[in-house]
Amino acid sequence: MIKSLYQKLFSERMRYRFHVAMRKARAFFLQGSEFYCPCCGKSSKRFLKKGNGIESREHAVCPNCGSLERSRLLFLYLKNETEIFKNNPSILHFAPEESLKSLFLANLNYTDVDLNPNLATYAMDVTDIRFPDGHFDFIICSHVLGHVPDEKKALSELYRVLKKGGDLFLLSLMDLNSAQTVEDDRNKSPQQKLEAYGEKDLQRLYGNDFEERIRMASVNIQKIDYREHFSAEDRQRMALGDGNRELIYKVTKI
Ligand SMILES: [Zn+2]
Description:
The chain has eight helices and eleven strands. The protein is α/β, with parallel strands linked by helices. β5 (91-94), α4 and β6 (110-114) form a beta-alpha-beta unit.
């Protein structure tokens, strides 16, 4: 009842700002050096827990900038291995993570979009991208595809707006022990989806066939486990995850 009253009284945007303010207040009390976030460059005594019940993960959220394991690893990869932070390339960022978005704000060719108009500069559906063909040098689409009913339409749109030679970075929750993606239209309720796919708003849980599912004639695909570039100590200190959410699929348009 309290939650529903809170939602009625405050807009989504206000609730988000309040959430950020609370997290930053907690960061003040978590000063220390045990954990380090490469996105904001700040250290903490610990990172915050993400989610509840079977969805929960300890030491997932940086209290200073809100980055998650996958955003920290993707940031390290983008900074060390790509030209995305140099010479203002055109970038399209779906469902923008604040921790990454803040690092692109100096780039005038950066565009962030989300289905929800409260969460990005532009409201846009990944299955209907309102930009011309071959428009972007880079596209970041992390933990979006698994939520989209028409996966093939989303992929064809993403590939369409990517420049030739441009790179799309796709990440998703995956079950690395499963050969096949699990998808069943009978799983309709949030509880059924949570039990079947591990998150209550996923349409499917990808398996090791992910690369086959996203393959089209016009692209090259590289699967990158960038955690392997770091020592066990660094992986723990930066909390870079267990690999189920952090594999990077770099899709280059040819
Ligand atoms: Zn941070």
